[in-house]
Write a structure and sequence with these properties.
This protein has helices at 9-32, 37-55, 59-81, and strands spanning 87-88, 94-95. The protein has three helices and two strands, in the order H-H-H-E-E.
């Protein structure tokens, strides 16, 4: 797996700040209510944001960029033929497809 930074430094600093804020908030809530599992889930999400900011790699951003490239490649492939196929015989002459209507 090739992990290259795909978010900017400003974005990474924002993720670290928000992640630490969420992590500290859920930690204080877990002290009062340790039986609540929802706070543990939110703490994991905050820790994930801190980790994304430190390594400057977001898997959702990478997935989105990959999907965008696939859509652009598909659009280019569809536009190149314009949906019309050209039939040629062995001599290079174009043949008109048979249309019974």
């Amino acid at each position: 797996m090739n992990v290259k930074p795909n978010i900017s430094i400003i974005n990474a600093l924002i993720r670290i700040t928000i992640g630490l804020t969420i992590l500290s908030w859920t930690t204080s809530k877990l002290v009062k209510h340790p039986w609540r599992d929802s706070y543990l889930f939110v703490a994991m999400c905050g820790a994930m944001k801190v980790a994304e900011g430190i390594v400057r790699f977001c898997p959702l951003t990478a997935l989105f960029e990959k999907c965008q490239c696939m859509v652009q490649d598909h659009d280019r492939a569809m536009d190149s033929g314009d949906g019309m196929e050209v039939f040629t015989d062995g001599n290079g002459d174009q043949l008109v497809p048979y249309n019974p209507t």
